[in-house]
Amino acid sequence: MKRPLRIVLTLLLTGLALGYLVWKVDIRETVDTLLDADPWWFALSVGIMIGTALPMALRWQWLMRAQRMDDSFLWLTRAYFVSYTASQVLPTSIGGDAMRVYETARRHPGRTGDVTGIILLERGLGGAGTVLLGAIGFLLALGTYDVGAYLWLEGLFVVGTLVLIFLFFSRSAQPLLARSRPLLERLRVERPLRALYDGIHHFRGHVRLLVAVFVFTTVIQAVRILSIWAAGKAVGIDLGPRIYYVMGPLFFLILLVPFTLNGIAVREAFFVSFLGNVGVPADQAFAAGFLFFLVTTALALPGAGILLWEGIRGGSRPRLEHG
User: Fold this and answer.
1) Which of 67, 74, 86, 206 has the fewest CB atoms in 10 Å of its CB?
2) 34 Cα distance to chain centroid
3) Contact 57, 303 (CB under 8 A)
4) Would you call 304 exposed, middle or buried from its count of C-beta atoms within 10 A (0-12, 13-18, 19+)?
5) Residue 85 confidence (pLDDT) above 90
6) What is the pLDDT of residues 229-287, one digit of tens each?
7) Distance from CA of residue 181 to its chain's centroid?
8) CA-based nearest residue to 76, from 126, 44, 122, 113
């Protein structure tokens, strides 16, 4: 996508979200709510997000080993935390993934395509796991929560994912994909989709590994949703975890939208809109969204500390792959 168009879309989406928040939220009430936030629930929310980075690094290690690229769990964990830091200044999670591709490719010369494919596959499996949780949330919400269009949007994500699974795994879909290539090239998404497609097909002989990683990823995402619940509890939202398993998958998918300034305003507007449908006051919902922003900011602190330490020590040279 052309940069000017992306800038326009980003400003438009952010502006709409800000306008919605100005309409719904009383800033004074929100500030009072944040000042009264429970630090222990906030600490739990931060701890969940930081703690789940460790199994995500392990998942990455499994996929790399299947492609005969061996890296230590310690370095991969370090790369994950650094990518979180990068995502604070680059477009959403895409910037963090680009950082991981760059650093890992330096350690494995000549394997940039494989590294990109693995990281995109990892991202794809994460999205599929989130959508599975969304399907579960859809079933939980039916007849229980009045969340309006969000419920059907969740169902749409589920159907869309099933279509993508067919396109990526079925050989009969290959002629259809070939005909869509000119359109994908004009939209400038052909290359990343091709890398994801190739990454998946490199693993066709590792079906058990893909299934294991998918299940593992789904569990990680399920635990991460509890971080949103803890952020809500910190500002006094007295709802159980169940509603967050309806809300959380949609929220994680919205964070992947590249047309935001690090999710600013869009994240908080989503909290206000969704939680408002289940009776949470707008000021309290906005406070929960802002607090979760602080949680994601705290997630970037370990990576910032690592980069600072490496800068003081003069950095580290990339390891050359042998064999």
Assistant:
1) 74
2) 25
3) no
4) middle
5) no
6) 999 999 999 988 888 888 888 888 777 665 556 667 778 888 888 888 888 898 899 89
7) 26
8) 122
